[in-house]
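How a chain folds remains the central question behind the approach discussed here. This step matters because it turns folding into a mapping between discrete strings. The sequence in question and its structure tokens are set out directly beneath this paragraph.
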Amino acid sequence: MAETEGVKSQDTPFEGGPMDGRVLPVLLGMTGHPPKTYRIPVPDAAGGPPTVLVYRRVPRAYGRRTGVVRGWKYRYDPEGRGGGRLRWPWTKGDGTPSGKPDGPTG
């Protein structure tokens, strides 16, 4: 078995939904932060497709002097909206044209 040197986790509390009040160890990324979205698949008792619980990372507390985030927690997102894709500043939000002409003739 390979050793897991350098892999760090942090005990992170969950707020709201079925996981309310639980604290789970969450793997940290390269930046030292847990992922922005945490998805938990819950199997269906009838054998159907699993239900996915979605939790979003929010600041747990801020430092008094510096205002820097001091830890993270996960808050339940009942709608479970997407949010998993990258949003580049130069892309359009919904794919509709902006109404500006592309060339000098319109």
